[in-house]
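Hi U.,

Before I forget, here's the chain from the pilot set. I'm dumping it here mostly so it's searchable later in email.
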Amino acid sequence: MIAGKHIEALRGLLGDKGIVSESRDMAAYQTGARYDEGVAGLVLRPRTTAETSSVVSYCVRNDIALIPQSGNTGLVSGSTPDSSGDQIVLSLDRLAEHFELDAGNRSLSLDAGFRLSDVNARLESHGLFFPIDLGADPRIGGMLSTNTGGSRFLKYGDVRRNTLGVKVVLADEAGTVLDLNCDLRKNNTGVDWKQIFVGTSGAFGIITECVLNLERLPRQTATAFLVPQSAAHVLPLLTVMEERLGAYLSAFEGMSGNAVAAALAHVPSLRNPFQGGHIPDYLILVEVMRTWAPREGEQSLDEVLETALAEIWESEAAPLADAFVGPPAEMWSLRHALSEGVKHAAKLIAFDVSFRRGDIMAFCERMRADLPQAFDDITICDFGHIGDGGVHFNLAVKKDSPQLADPIFETTLRQWVFKIAVEDFGGSFSAEHAIGRKNQAIYDAYTSDTLKQLAASLKMITSPGKLGTVTFG
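Structure:
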């Protein structure tokens, strides 16, 4: 546990509001979004970059381990403490004061503690938004440190693509502040240092401020549910949609029938949109958008989408079995309910994997064929971003399954899935959740010694102190 002298010294740096030391008040900081739970020796809540630097410096000089925590919405135990009680959580929840919009440059400079929903609410009146669409509501610092992708990656890319600059506190004895904030989109003056801190789970430094690229807020959208003829028809369907809709296409989200059923069961307010209540084995949510207001005489986006679908339907060897255009808010509500729905369906063992676009459905079909032969009492509830090759491959294990009593069951299952995903399909074991304790062993197994050595060297140069939950080297 953290010695009293350290608690008082840190209190002196942050004040009473910057310290959480009572166990009942630390519960929210110790419990993650997906089963993970630890014991924090203390929670620090700095309000500025300068305060962050001062407490990081103190902890490094006194050999105290720090776990940076943003919105605590991650799914791989990357922001929660272990069970030792020897780690301090450094939360960004008070780092939310600086907010400076440059509308002409379409950029935003802000503290890392703002939540995504708050950012977009503030930007709405300016006709702008940060174009990373997520089911959760994380803080911006965590989004950068994990390089989140989201449902509109197909159009806008990931956080890495939309980050212009960062300010970082390094875990060294000085608590060095590295100012890499920049509002330029073109700046080829050497190493792009900011990218070292994007997607690396806070191991090399704590992002306290950043500059984001913004996009024009969509003024017109249209959505449809598509039912492909088979899994083999999904990629041809995506290809022809891209050919016919071009830059209008903003999302192409795959959803298994099991995941949809779990969402409808968990959220009674959702309307079952399927005729007779029959849920297809697999369906796709497709979205198109424009950033300008409707013009007189212009074909509406609903009509554009309906025309494209009609042309596809009438084509030779049409990949569609069914399709219908519907209200965007209603259709996205179903998509965004999938994660919580599958979480409540049973004991969830979740994977965040990615593939070449042509392999994603082949992997899912391989799992549907092989998993029942290898493991009992498991339902596949997958969904994901087919347009960019990512899939949230969720396995729901019956809560009364005797397998859950086996201490090595989950590890064995994870190794089995990852082996097929990485070795047989050349996929990634972490598409958009970065690295945390849950996949440390997989990182160790599938990362070359050369890359580990390079990462370890970079860690010693940037943040030699005990920082984060992941060991890259």
